[in-house]
């Protein structure tokens, strides 16, 4: 939760030695490993290890400390007392609110590194100091951080839920359906289309569930629940290689608790406590 975090775009000047420094190597985050749990290193601790900090991205303040993201680390190997850890593996290990700030930092660091030139005239962009954006000094075009909305939905049929497996999954994991929203499409229409395209099922009673930032690299996952309306499962063979209806007491391997997919599945299990297993 980000209740203790105050986001800002106003660069405060020279970073304080105790400022929190979120250093990324792609989707890996540098964390201190000397304590009982991973911690975010300070600016001076990172600087002492020879990591390039010439372009820190100010994120805001948390509990009185300034927070910075370093868009790219020129040094990616482990350093004494610290290591680069895949951000997904730090869920529940990195204390609140630092994990949520790390997700924000990853998204903005990726955008800052990729969005360097105007998409209209190719002029190098300049950072705005009043809003989170970059401006072209030649044509005035504003470039904002890219956020790609995607719907993710739990489909219920009586006491079963619809799960599917993607050929892109590295394991035999099954999950709820998801897909990106297309231009000119409402979120509810995206839910209907994705379920229909991937499994041949029509749904009804679509209801908002919740959302989750997913900066891998720039998604916002918007969760919904829906009920089966009609149709028989017919997988598309591309995005989905298997799909089926599952009772709460007979689930296949499902995602871990990091993702909103698991929150959707857990909400279904709470509705069927007698049938669900531990």
Tell me about this structure.
This protein has 278 residues and is an alpha+beta fold. The protein has 2 domains: 5-114, Nucleoside Triphosphate Pyrophosphohydrolase, CATH 3.90.79; 148-271, Nucleoside Triphosphate Pyrophosphohydrolase. Helices cover 17% and strands 32% of the residues. The protein has helices at residues 43-47, 98-114, 187-199, 260-271, and strands at 5-7, 20-25, 28-32, 57-62, 65-70, 82-86, 126-127, 134-135, 142-143, 148-157, 160-165, 177-180, 202-214, 219-230, 242-247. A hairpin with a 2-residue loop joins strand 4 and strand 5 (65-70).
SSE order, one letter for each helix or strand: EEEHEEEHEEEEEEHEEEH
CATH topology value of the largest domain = Nucleoside Triphosphate Pyrophosphohydrolase
Per DSSP, the total helix count is 4
Number of strands: 15
Tell me the overall shape. globular
| Uncertain parts | none
Our Rg estimate from Cα atoms comes to 22 Å
- Beta-sheet strand percentage? 25-35%
> Mean of the pLDDT scores?
91
* Tally of structural domains: 2
Main beta-sheet strand count, sense and barrel state: 6 strands, mixed
Helix coverage percent: 10-25%
Which superfamily, in CATH terms, is the homologous superfamily of the largest domain? Nucleoside Triphosphate Pyrophosphohydrolase
CATH architecture designation of the largest domain: Alpha-Beta Complex
Keywords:
single chain; 278 residues; alpha+beta; Nucleoside Triphosphate Pyrophosphohydrolase; 2 domains; six-stranded mixed sheet; 4 helices; 15 strands; globular
């Amino acid at each position: 939760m980000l209740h203790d975090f105050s986001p800002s775009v106003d660069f405060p000047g020279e970073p304080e030695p105790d400022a929190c420094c979120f250093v990324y190597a792609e989707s890996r985050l540098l964390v201190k490993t000397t304590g009982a749990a991973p911690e975010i290193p300070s600016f001076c601790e990172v600087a002492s290890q020879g990591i390039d900090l010439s372009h820190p991205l100010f994120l805001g303040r948390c509990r009185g400390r300034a927070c910075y993201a370093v868009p790219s680390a020129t040094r990616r190997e482990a350093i004494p007392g610290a290591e680069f850890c895949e951000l997904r593996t730090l869920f529940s290990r990195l204390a609140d609110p630092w994990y949520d700030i790390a997700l924000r930092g990853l998204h903005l660091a990726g955008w800052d590194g990729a969005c360097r030139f105007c998409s209209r005239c190719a002029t190098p962009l300049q950072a705005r100091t009043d809003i989170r954006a970059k401006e072209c000094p030649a044509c005035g075009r504003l470039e904002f951080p890219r956020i790609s909305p995607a719907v993710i939905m739990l489909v219920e049929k009586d006491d079963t839920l619809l799960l599917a497996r993607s050929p892109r999954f590295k394991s035999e994991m099954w999950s709820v359906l998801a897909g990106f929203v297309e231009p000119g499409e409402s979120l509810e229409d995206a839910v209907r289309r994705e379920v229909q395209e991937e499994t041949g099922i029509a749904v009804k009673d679509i209801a908002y569930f919740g959302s989750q930032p997913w900066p891998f690299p720039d998604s916002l996952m918007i969760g919904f629940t829906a009920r089966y309306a009609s149709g028989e499962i017919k997988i598309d063979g591309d995005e989905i290689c298997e799909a089926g209806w599952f009772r709460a007491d007979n689930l296949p391997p499902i995602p871990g608790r990091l993702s909103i997919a698991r929150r959707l599945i857990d909400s279904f299990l709470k509705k069927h406590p007698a049938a669900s297993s531990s």
